[in-house]
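Weekly puzzle thread! Below is a chain. First person to post its structure in token form gets bragging rights.
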Amino acid sequence: LAPGDELALVFDASGLPPPPAGFRRSLFLESHGWDKDADRNTWQGHRLEPLPHRGMGSYADGVPFPDDPAHRAYRERWLSRVVGQD
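Winning reply:
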């Protein structure tokens, strides 16, 4: 995570009943995986790769990110941030 990063969630809640008067609905996001935070103490924090994924035993174990059409499309659409060396 670095300055300017964004997480956007879009979902249809129109099928849910309205909350009672005086209440509001809250959302809880549970994240699975590692969050690379651009910290110099994070392994490879200055670069996008290697991408964390569920198949890794530990973050630096060398198991590559899956390389199939679905994962390539994901990378092309969502991994657009440029991280510089400075």
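Puzzle host: Confirmed. Bonus trivia for everyone else. The two ends are 16 Å apart (CA to CA).
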